[in-house]
Specification:
Length: about 240
């Protein structure tokens, strides 16, 4: 059974048991509004973390079933029950804080958050956005990328700051825009990359390889070798 704010029932008896075999370390709370495919990728990555809860503002979010399948507790904080953003955000924060999370993960959470909420979780609130930020912040990124005629598009994992889709970047993945691409085809190609980079970025934050530095930029303790380049259209063999 799902619970709402103030209700202490959990969806699943197994929800109190860490859903993987690793020693629990960091606690994550995940916020969703819909499909939950990034949530699913994250849960399937079996990171050595504890999931406090998946919280949705929508009763109908498919992601709630994904969470339940993985034995993670779910909660609903329905934004329609609150007169304004600040009151919704404080109810949401109260629900999040019950789980004492180290990291709050936005995974398709479709509400604009107040500056007060964002500041409360500064350095421990992350988001995935379906474009190569700072290009195409906001909605309809794939349509806008096609309209702009870019040849390379992608996705970005970033820490959240009060300004929409402009926080410090943790990681990005790029895909080519192909001839004849529709919004749906492009979205699918980008989404496949989201499912790869989001679990890795979260793993790195949880094990200390990625952190928000005092200069407001992300420090990566993990070195990496450049892995070739992506040209679109591809370069001809010479
Ligand atoms: C993804 O495209 C993500 O980048 C954006 O919202 C969408 C969520 O999809 N923030 P899902 O619910 O994870 O399937």
């Amino acid at each position: 059974m799902r619970y709402e704010v103030g209700d202490t029932r959990y969806t699943h008896p197994a929800s109190r048991i860490p859903h993987h075999e690793y020693m629990a370390e960091k606690t994550l709370v995940i916020l969703i509004s819909g499909r939950g495919s990034n949530l699913e990728a994250l849960l399937e990555a079996r990171l050595p973390v504890r999931y406090g809860a998946v919280i949705s503002n929508e009763f109908a979010a498919r992601g709630l079933a994904v969470a339940a399948k993985h034995g993670v507790a779910t909660a609903i904080v329905d934004h329609r029950k609150f007169p304004d953003r600040p009151s919704f955000d404080s109810a949401l924060a109260a629900e999040i804080d019950r789980h004492r999370p180290d990291l709050v993960v936005l995974a398709g959470f479709m509400r604009i958050l107040t500056a007060a909420f964002v500041q409360r979780y500064q350095g421990r609130l992350v988001n995935i956005h379906p474009s190569l930020l700072p290009a195409f912040p906001g909605l309809d990124t794939h349509r806008r990328a096609l309209e702009a005629g870019v040849r390379i598009h992608g996705c970005t994992v970033h820490f959240v700051t009060p300004a929409l889709d402009s926080g410090p970047i943790i990681g990005q993945a790029a895909v080519p825009v192909l001839p004849g691409d529709t919004e749906e085809r492009l979205a699918q190609r980008v989404l496949a990359e989201e499912h790869r980079i989001y679990p890795q970025a979260i793993r790195w934050i949880c094990d200390g390889r990625a952190a928000l530095g005092p200069d407001g930029r992300v420090t990566l303790k993990q070195g990496w070798k450049a892995d070739g380049s992506l040209a679109s259209p591809p370069l001809e063999a010479r």
